[in-house]
Amino acid sequence: MRCPSCQNENAVGAVYCDMCGFDLTPAKRATVAESAPAPQPPPQPANPHQKRHTVFEPDPAAAPPPPPAQRGADFFANPPPPRPTFDPRDPFAAASLPPSRPAAAPVSPIAPAPVQAPAPAAAPAPAARPKARTIVETANEGAAVGLIRGALFEYRGPTDPGRVHPLRAGRNVLGRDAGCDVVIDDGRVSGQHAFLFIRTEDASYMDVSSNGSIANGSVVHGGQVILQNNAVLTLGGTTLVLVIVPESLLSRRSQ
């Protein structure tokens, strides 16, 4: 038996080579190795972050897609319709153009294409007029305009009534501007927030602000309400108490 390692001739049936000691029974080792089951790798937990690939296979029962349309020889002979021209001073003139334009007539590739005049620019649309808002000053019903007829008390707590703003008969402007009759130092109050008309026995309150007001717990926004004596107004974060002196009491005192 020839040794596969050193090519030495050994006796028949020898287990090991006499020269190098090589194992001469490889078939037996292979049989034992093959009989043993191969170790299985441990199961790997599923990775929730593993990217998945979705492959869309065509449906064999679906009809084949139609072939692309063949362009005829006259495709390049017919140029597309001219693009509309725009006036740079009127960028919104495109809204007045028709949604579609008729196709141009076929033009011979030899003859030059006729030059079309540009479409006239549409006239600019008139600007939307702001919504009219009429402010009606309520009549004073015979009250003497300019006389002190009441006051507004800024309520800051039971012990601190705050400032006292006198009110005259007729119109009183309430707001944050320094030129108002009743100046309210509050960032949430408009420059001219409201008009307060002191009448004979009551008052008319008209809100002209952007944030609105609260009169006796009701929201007044761009409207007009009638207020009686001891009415409570809230403008922004300021609370005001209205006190009106009836004209009947003043007339009795003058007598």
Summarize the structure in words.
With 255 residues, the chain is mainly beta. Helix content is 7%, strand content 20%. The chain is built from two helices and eleven strands. It has helices at residues 26-35, 247-254; strands at 148-154, 164-168, 170-175, 182-183, 194-198, 203-207, 213-215, 218-220, 224-227, 232-235, 238-244. The strands form two sheets. It has a six-stranded antiparallel sheet, with no helix packed on it. A hairpin with a 4-residue loop joins strand 5 (194-198) and strand 6. It is elongated. Mean pLDDT is 75; it is low at 132-143.
- In the predicted model, the low-confidence regions spanning at least 5 consecutive residues are 132-143
Count of extended strands: 11
The residue-averaged pLDDT reads: 75
Could you tell me the strand content as a percent range?
15-25%
Q: Main β-sheet, in a few words? A: 6 strands, antiparallel
Succession of helices and strands: HEEEEEEEEEEEH
Rounded to an integer, what's the Rg over CA atoms? Answer: 50 Å
Subunit arrangement of the protein = single chain
Number of discrete helical segments = 2
Strand order within the widest beta sheet: 2-1-11-10-7-8
Gap from first CA to last CA: 154 Å
Structural class: mainly beta
Quick description:
With 255 residues, this protein is mostly beta strands. It is built from 2 helices and 11 strands, in the order H-E-E-E-E-E-E-E-E-E-E-E-H.
Task: Give the arrangement of secondary structure elements.
Elements (H helix, E strand, L loop, with lengths): L25 H10 L112 E7 L9 E5 L1 E6 L6 E2 L10 E5 L4 E5 L5 E3 L2 E3 L3 E4 L4 E4 L2 E7 L2 H8 L1
Parallel strand pairs: 3-4
Antiparallel strand pairs: 1-2, 1-11, 3-5, 5-6, 6-9, 7-8, 7-10, 10-11
